[in-house]
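Researcher: Quick sanity check before group meeting.
Model: Go ahead. Protein one:
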Amino acid sequence: MKHYPPQFKADAVALYQSRPESTIRQVAADLGIDSETLRKWVRAAGANRPRGRRAKKAPAGPPTPLEAENAALRRKVRELEEECEVLRKAARYSAGETRW
């Protein structure tokens, strides 16, 4: 049984929460961990993804196609940065296990 550092667990749960379109199985596969392991971490953290839309301030007008595209790209960049950071930590952790 592998032991993961608490920070890795927290980052994995945060990554799952930040990707509402992904399942636990998909996020776990991206991180190279078992889906049941991630599911237990999510439950233990009491982490739930928001269901439905939350009330936000209404924008002054409908966003232009360029603004909508920029917002989508910013979300994607943020998601990829989080994934990259978690994978870096996983790689460091894995490298530490193999050293004598």
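Researcher: Fine. The other one?
Model: Protein two, sequence then structure:
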Amino acid sequence: MEIRLILKAAGFILLLITGIPANLTILISFICSSISDKKLMPTDLILTKLSFVNVIVVLVRGIPQALTALGVQKIFSDYGCKFAVFTYRVCRAMSICTTAVLSIYQCIVLLPPSSKCKTLKQKVTQNIQLIFLFLWGINCIIYIPAGFMYSQAELNSSIPKYALNFEFCFVLFPHEASYRVNGTVYTFRDFLFVGLMALASSYIVAILYKHNKKLQRMRNSEQKQGSTIELRAAKAVVMLVTLYLVLFGVDNATWMYIIMAAHVKPAVSDARVFFASVYTAVSPMVIIGTNKKLQQKLKCLSMSSDNKITKTYIGTVAENTAS
């Protein structure tokens, strides 16, 4: 087996091993919280949506890539290929959009207290589901051509000039114009939302700097605790955005090379797909490591599980002693 394929298989298997459990942990924890508490805070709701699309990305893209690298052929039919390409592209786009919404919402939370800012926060909170519905709709429309019209599982001849080779699927654009237009639209959408992330994150960093000075002068412990909670949430968002910006730079630099080059080596496409998927596996670890509410929920679940095991063990010992 080629070294490229070994590295590819190992990389995507690692993403599966880390990404699926981490994202499912966040997803299940917040679902349990919504059932027990009857509601979710807007930030928790956004993180739930982020973990959902992330786990779909890891599954739909990581498994086929790993299987292909291991030598498995004909993973999908044409219809399966269309579904896989469309689902991956839409969910990856929603991962970008959701991270942008998270950073913008956190930015709104940290705005100076005023009637206008309070109204803005209320409107965003009340319409958060509509915002995500709009984003889902836009991304689904954008990816209909590449997902359903141009995707297929096999080729009858060599790979055409204007095609994207995912090894388990092919996206065949009918001519150069459609190839360039699709690439430009995807890149513009990515840069738009990443730009919004960067602006919101820059504002958050400025607020964090001011809050750190304010905390040093605070004497009221309750006020200090409230500000610390806000700061912790803001820092977590900045970490997520910074992580995405780094991976976005690598991903889109590679993508721009792909759409401009006539022929692209498989290793280049593999690298782009891998870096495009890394965020979905690493971001949940950042969320778990920085979200105190989530950590407490997991700790309670762990303690509950330990108590059940202990009670079962004690009961078993008691029965054996009695007999």
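Researcher: One line on it for the slide.
Model: The longest helix spans residues 176-217.
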